[in-house]
Design goal:
single chain, 317 residues, alpha+beta, six-stranded mixed β-sheet, two-stranded antiparallel ribbon, 11 helices, 12 strands, globular
């Protein structure tokens, strides 16, 4: 073969060597690039994305807080209702917690009120404090939170502009979305030993409602423990990828009259204070007197001379 056309120099040993071709136009051809396979999106990217989302929320909260003209403490009432009839909210508020958030001091105060506390209720007369919500909601749907707030205000002397109503059924979905919750038990309770215990949704609900082997005062002490556990759970970076699902579940479980700016201020305070910054107490049993009504109901008569100084100290009244 003519070397002019092949670009090769004749070699006497060509028969024993491979023939290599030469393309004089190869210099002008585009380079062949081997495509790279995309790596799958990993957990690191998801955590970073959720972190940016939370950071944006915090920044918005800071802006709203500093431009807000009402940056003082916020009082609110937490009402836990248990399995109302389908399509209604008519139920007794078996969990009643008077709360206060002071953003400037990064302090959260909560006082659990016994559901059997015997108090005067407007339009009803004397009855258990948890029936204020029930009677109002049964007579006029949607009025239960307002009636509960007015009853607490008139008896405890604290102005409460906001409420947070929690449905226990939806509460389980929130816990499931978070992957459970870890609580720190100061003493053995509800069949669990003292120390850290990880509870799934069903166990967490049973823990909050459990009264076996104890009275209602012991049950009330479970709610603050669970709230502190939830705060720690949300603050853990390992939980951040689950927060979008938890937020979606909370929409079904919670309704409130809190304004968005107030929500963000409360959330910011919880993050800054952490679980150690929560002053959660149960109304002491020494401040009530067990009593049996004429109808045979076991109730608790409040000792207001002891209760009101405690409330004034906790809520700066």
């Amino acid at each position: 073969m003519n070397s002019y056309f092949t670009g090769l120099v004749p070699d006497p040993n060509a028969a024993t060597q491979p023939v290599q071709s030469y393309d004089p136009l190869a210099h002008y051809q585009p380079m062949r690039i081997t495509p790279r396979l995309r790596k799958p999106v990993g957990w690191c990217f998801i955590v970073a994305l959720v972190g940016l989302f939370l950071l944006a929320i915090l920044l918005v909260g800071l802006i709203l807080y500093f431009v807000s003209s009402s940056g003082g403490p916020v009082n609110f009432l937490i009402l836990g209702i248990d399995r109302p009839p389908q399509g209604t909210n008519t139920s007794r508020s078996d969990t009643i917690i008077l709360g206060r958030v002071d953003t400037l001091k990064s302090k959260i105060t909560m006082l659990s009120i016994p559901r059997d506390l015997w108090v005067p209720i407007a339009g009803v007369g004397e009855n258990r404090i948890n029936t204020a919500y029930f009677f109002a909601e049964a007579n006029q749907p949607g009025s239960g939170p307002t009636a509960a707030i007015k009853t607490v205000e008139s008896n405890f002397g604290v102005q409460v502009p906001y409420y947070i109503r929690l449905r226990f059924d939806g509460f389980m979905e929130v816990i499931s979305a978070l992957g459970g919750v870890t609580v720190e038990l100061p003493t053995p309770m509800s069949g669990y030993p003292a120390g850290k215990q990880h509870l799934d949704a069903t166990q967490a609900l049973a823990f909050v409602r459990d009264r076996k082997g104890a009275d209602d005062f012991a049950r009330m002490g479970h709610a603050p423990i669970l709230i502190k556990g939830l705060v720690q759970q949300v603050m853990s970076p390992l939980t951040w990828p689950r927060l979008p699902l938890a937020l979606a579940a909370s929409v079904k479980a919670v309704d409130t009259n809190l304004l968005p700016g107030v929500w963000l201020r409360i959330g910011l305070t919880f993050l800054r204070a952490g679980s150690d910054g929560i002053d959660a107490r149960v109304l002491p049993r020494e401040m009530v007197t067990p009593f049996v009504t004429n109808g045979g109901a076991d109730v608790l008569l409040p000792k207001w001379p002891l209760i009101r100084p405690l409330v004034a100290k906790m809520f700066n009244q």
